[in-house]
């Protein structure tokens, strides 16, 4: 037992969690001392290649949601040598536990970014700045996220093609969603919209509260069907599906890299922070990368391509550090301009209304003090079931339309969770959100550990656009991120309508049987507005403006005539040969839903584009 206890303590220290308390499960971390690593993840840790070749065919930068897919798929070609560089460490047994999602944020597995204060949003956060978690770990943000599997609306992808991106319409991308997927819910797996036998496991959590049943029943009351929101039509309510396997998180590292880790032609180097792409200015060809590992500078060359898959924040930062970006921005930092492109522009995110809390009278929600830690943990370890399998607490999803939207292309998504900011008595969620003490103590502390549920309406197609800029030419400085929430006034109007729909959901017959009612202590900065008025809801939204962790668009894909485009429809960076971007930053507009599944799709399709360009037709079809 002492050895097992030591292993667990070491794992907790490795992600900066020791001494914390989980927001939905009491004493969970103490109970994890009884868990052996191999019980949680029977696959051995990834091989962190110590000695690297001087040259590879492909160097993939970033082992996240897309990068892990790209590296895995390229290594399917036996005579290609592939190197994957990841700035963070490997996953561990803590990140495997779905209910511990909130604990991974602000840990050593998180880049720990914050957005700039604008005075229009994040007013209830310390210094007016929202936290923006991003995965610094093999598997990237698929290790930190709430695992929700949502593809977006078919109109999203048809629109991409209309913008001048052939091959990116819904019918084309659907086959890549299906290619990845191993759906283990039979009622969905046998439909034309889902796959079985892919590398990425998708299924419902094996545990749920009665509140999610009320949630989907409410959809029927409101005239929405209970449907597969990843199927033919999107508008409707559904019990959430997630990227979990046997009750554990199924990140892209687990799905795409662990099965291929013994291939001789793929090397994975962890804790390898890429600082610059090497580009020959005479012929504008990318020929390698510079990176730091264990405090030492290294250079590795790429015979065919450097592929950036570092995500919507780090990919534009790295391009700009390498001389690819807006001329004025680069000159400000004395970086030689190799190619003047709008890198870092077009930033989009799904902003949501956080802290929208509803009280209930029955013991049906997730309350920290209710779950006996040891038997619950044993249920998880031995049976792969129980509260520890919950998707970070989110149980239900819905896509609805306000008066500004329509049934074929809903403009609001709801996340339903059987908990809220108060459910852990202030131990974790308030820190993840970065709430001020005044806001938490006034509104949520009076109902600490009481039964509640929350609805998070989020804006599916924001009009506002933000940006990523360099803070300095030092590659180890965090970039400047301006989400620019609510720059377009229509965005806040749509979310206010979403709040009013949330009130209607809470007043349904299905929820009333639990004594459902909105928590009515007003926010301190909003109390001069009538509670429940449009003005009050707008103030609430601006106070707890909650990122749903979906930044996209900062290296926009578009045709050559698009002045905002950074990459072409084959994801090649304009004006630079041997350099591609394959991650969520290429998305011209944000998909209508959670972006992890679309990022994986981009990885799948991007890898095929590389194969098409470098293999003969006969080789590619093998």
UniProtKB/TrEMBL annotation:
Annotated GO MF terms: flavin adenine dinucleotide binding; oxidoreductase activity, acting on CH-OH group of donors
Signal peptide: none
One Pfam family in the UniProt entry: GMC_oxred_N
Alphabetical UniProt keywords: FAD, Flavoprotein, Membrane, Transmembrane, Transmembrane helix
Binding positions for FAD per the UniProt entry: 137, 274
Glucose-methanol-choline oxidoreductase N-terminal domain location: 135-158, 311-325
Cofactor(s) this protein cannot do without: FAD
Keyword check for Flavoprotein: yes
Transmembrane segments: 12-35
Entry annotated with the keyword Transmembrane helix: yes
Similarity comment: Belongs to the GMC oxidoreductase family.
Name used for this protein in its record: Glucose dehydrogenase [FAD, quinone]
Source organism: Sitophilus oryzae
Gene: LOC115879983
